Amino acid sequence: MFxxxxxxxxxxxxxxxxxxxxxxxxxxxxxxxAAELFVAVARVEADGLVxxxxxxxxxxxxxGKRCLPVLTRGALPLWQPDWVFQRTTLDVLAxxxxxxxxxxxxxxxxxxxxxxxATPLDRAAWxxxxxxxxxxxxxxxxxxxxxxxxxxxxxxxxxxxxxSVRDGxxxxxxxxxxxxxxxxxxxxxxxxxxxDPAGWWHLTERxxxxxxxxxxxxxxLRAREGLAEHAxxxxxxPATEEWRQAVTQVLVHRAAPEAEVRAMDAAVTRxxxxxxxxxxxxxxxxxxxxxxxxxHDLACAVTVARLGLAARxxxxxxxxxxxxxxxxxxxxxxxxxxxxxxxxxxx
Length: 347
What we know:
Blueprint: H1 11-22, H2 25-33, E1 37-42, H3 43-46, E2 58-59, E3 66-72, E4 83-88, H4 90-96, E5 103-106, E6 114-117, H5 120-132, H6 152-159, H7 161-167, H8 181-192, H9 197-208, H10 215-230, H11 240-253, H12 258-280, H13 294-310, H14 316-333, H15 337-346
Parallel strand pairs: 3-5
Antiparallel strand pairs: 1-3, 1-4, 2-3, 5-6
């Protein structure tokens, strides 16, 4: 089969396509061992609304073999409301494989496809290769070469990149999965308290408005900006002690509880110390300061948008609206990506 103008979405598909073209079984297994693998499941089954259907192989038209299909992340189809994907790995497949005569079809019908025998000896080899394959290095930015790389949608997705690095997922993906269907729903439920579309919508609106976990830092930073403007020295921030006293006076005037006053005092100290550290790490230029910590909420909004889409709590249009809104807010608030990064770190 001839494929024209094909761009491998990730290095995994690139390695798998090259190994298949060479007839390199070891190369195929090595690529699959390093990959996240996904199995399609009807959403009603994943949600426990109907009993799971028994596994049924299909006849691969290219090889004629009876196969069970899996997909790598870059080969996942466009978002569909009624089909979801659960993540697995080669070692799990080796241990739970149901039939010695069935084959494993990876990315069937796509350029980065492979059909692998799954006899007991083959599966023993899978386990050996998987055990020798190092896990992905943490803390690295992963991209989909076929995902948005320029324009407003890419800029919005880039706001969520710090959390994508933390979670080990590509930063520029807005589609079928974040991690996998079950885990995405669990994260929304357990970490964010969201279990339905209404809760998802309310949370994204709060995050886009900057009402998330970074609100103490945001209050302190806005107070400093107001103090500098009032003094006519917008380019020269007030001293930390003057800033601290101003924040305390505002809170006392509002009859804020003592615990809130102490928390804001601690926030001022934390921000001042963090800015010194960021200057030492060249994230902030000498003499510069962070104007807003809303970047953290915007990053969370993008991540929650991606999770909500993956968990089928919203559709693509709603998720894209949140991502674009986050990008718009970031452009209005920050003059550069380093400024956004500094705001995120203070959030």
